[in-house]
């Protein structure tokens, strides 16, 4: 496994790989480090489908708001490298902020339509930061495929839209959410939780699971708003849960769903604070074909 810190060294390595085998398939997994099994699953998917697997580790300041956790974002370089090795990663790109942004950037990539709701509403500017750094990374690596986890389902929708609109020649591969055994979605931010917050945070996956069963059992009668309300009530049963949002939208367009449409994919997405830690989770479901009730 090769570890590189400079854009130019990475480009040289990629050039050498492409020169040695013009048909080489390059898989790319962009991350902010503090890797867990969710990231490992992305690297494993890339390993299965590609000849060369490149991981980037870069805590991107552009996507953090002024009062967010940029300074205390968890880091563990040694463990990240161990996970990279175990998953068969070929190249780790580990740049400093000064390498990615030698001067303040004057160009931002901004995706509209899919960024106005959910985390886009709660974290102004966040997706401009994500879209900008992902564009830079895709330009630097020029991979055939890039892998993203569906825990950040809105991020996947934003990146797919951006890649489509800007004709970036890469296939985006969304990968399923990886959960702890008790259902908590894997996140680098889970380490911030106290024992009690961690216990109560299980309400998120439980509420989403209840919503899925309820939709299955009552699809003839339940409306989108009634389904959303059951998720809200379930989450509110945890005293430490402070809801940022619970929304039911179409996916990947992220438009409001007032009535069930035809064969539409929907997302139930939640963002909830437990103490100072904001967690997100979601389920993507097939909406019932038609609705009898819409109260
Ligand atoms: O999902 C993440 O870890 C980040 O948003 C990403 C895609 C690496 C961009 O900084």
From TrEMBL:
Keywords of this entry: ATP-binding, Cytoplasm, Ligase, Nucleotide-binding, Pantothenate biosynthesis
Chain residues that bind ATP: 32-39, 149-152, 178, 186-189
Catalyses which reaction(s): (R)-pantoate + beta-alanine + ATP = (R)-pantothenate + AMP + diphosphate + H(+)
Annotated binding of (R)-pantoate, by residue: 63, 155
Superkingdom of this protein's organism: Bacteria
Any one Gene Ontology molecular-function term assigned to this protein's record: pantoate-beta-alanine ligase activity
Similarity field: Belongs to the pantothenate synthetase family.
Protein name as annotated: Pantothenate synthetase
Lineage: Bacteria, Bacillati, Bacillota, Bacilli, Bacillales
